[in-house]
Specification:
The protein has 326 residues and is of the alpha/beta class. The chain has 11 helices and 10 strands. It binds NADP nicotinamide-adenine-dinucleotide phosphate (NAP). The site of NADP nicotinamide-adenine-dinucleotide phosphate has 30 residues, from strand 10 and helix 11.
Length: 326
């Protein structure tokens, strides 16, 4: 592909940067996730076009995990290639996260949150991306079998080793997260951010208290799957398009999740968005961003155009209580 020249107006245009909790870090309101569309089943040029567009739009934060693919590791290899080529002059403009704790390699050390798994997995991630350090390393899930102190001390040691600048927790239940925030603070490695699913159909971080807990601890919050993997867009209003996530993948978003009741909710939400003069995707993203304590949303995209259109949420007018009913 042609040589990439980053847009000169990437910081002058649309993007907003929010302080992450009480840290020194600013994150773009919209971050890009590489869970889907950056693996071996997507042509490199397609993934590259999405990543280039993101950076040109001021998206500085790219969210990865050891297992993003397919095959697991492929998304990090993609990022490694970008960092050797298009993004080579821009490493210090990028905030790159990765994670460990889901199944990655066979045997007893290939997943969960032991010192053994987290340390080895981060080394593998760094190798795949050709990096000396990541900006943010997450424990991807709570491990009920490993002592929390072992996991948390490993995260502290990882920061001390210089292999990650900051630590994050993802999908930890409230009590464990509270313990973790306290432990990390006492060990001079404050938790930078909590990553949880937050969208109009899944408001658990709000109703179950994790958002408030983050705020109380000066920890940022980043919401994943803000579009409910595409359900909160116009994608499925008229059936299941062949190029959609449901049709192409189906592992995490199944056709049977699109029940008649769900479809009706999507139609109603789409009408509400239209009456506000915006797309459903834009309204859905704006809703997440307007929740108290939210630093950023991590969107997925299968094309540069989706990403571009989704930035409209930054100009969405404030939603008042009662504006959206589900
Ligand atoms: N911590 C965790 O455990 C965890 C779990 C899940 C995700 N994540 C993170 O969150 C990121 C985002 O997750 P996600 O991909 O589920 O996010 P999402 O933003 O809810 O869904 C993205 C998908 O929605 C569709 N879409 C996006 N914009 C659209 C538009 N304007 N019109 C129509 N369709 C549109 C596309 O699917 P099509 O293929 O149909 O076009 C796109 O791939 C991941 O990449 C990952 O970094 C973290």
């Amino acid at each position: 592909m042609d040589e990439y020249q980053a847009s000169e107006s990437r910081y002058a245009d649309a993007m907003r940067y929010n302080r992450c909790g009480k840290s020194g870090v600013l994150l773009p309101a919209i971050s890009l996730g590489l869970w889907h569309n950056f693996g071996d089943n997507t042509p490199f040029e397609v993934s590259q076009a999405i990543a280039r567009t993101a950076f040109d739009l001021g998206i500085t934060h790219f969210d990865l995990a050891n297992n993003y693919g397919p095959e697991p590791g492929a998304a990090e290899r993609f990022m490694g290639k970008m960092l050797r080529t298009d993004f080579k002059p821009h490493r210090d403009e990028l905030f790159i996260s990765t994670k460990a704790a889901y199944d990655m390699w066979p045997g007893p050390y290939g997943s969960w949150a032991s010192r053994k798994h987290l340390t080895a997995s981060l080394d593998q991630s760094l190798q795949r991306m050709g990096l000396d350090y990541v900006d943010l390393f997450y424990c991807h899930r709570y491990d009920p079998e490993t002592p929390l102190e072992e996991t948390l001390q490993t995260l502290v040691d990882i920061v001390r080793s210089g292999k990650a600048l900051y630590i994050g927790l993802s999908r930890w239940p409230l009590e464990a997260a509270r313990f973790g925030f306290e432990y990390l603070r006492r060990h001079d490695t404050p938790c930078l951010i909590y990553q949880g699913r937050l969208n109009l159909f899944d408001q658990a971080p709000k109703t179950e208290g994790i958002l408030a807990e983050c705020k109380a601890n000066g920890v940022g919050f980043i919401g994943f799957s803000p579009l409910a993997q595409g359900l909160l867009t116009d994608r499925y209003l008229n059936g299941i398009p062949e190029d959609s996530r449901i049709a192409r993948d189906g592992r995490f978003l199944h056709a049977d999740m699109l029940t008649p009741e769900r479809l009706q909710q999507i139609r109603d939400l789409n009408d509400m968005a239209a009456s506000r003069g915006e797309s459903l995707a834009s309204m859905a993203l704006a809703w997440v961003l307007q929740q108290e304590g939210v630093t950023s949303v991590i969107v997925g995209a299968s094309s540069p155009d989706q990403l571009r259109r989704n930035l409209a949420c930054l100009n969405s007018s404030p939603l008042r209580p009662g504006d959206i009913t589900i």
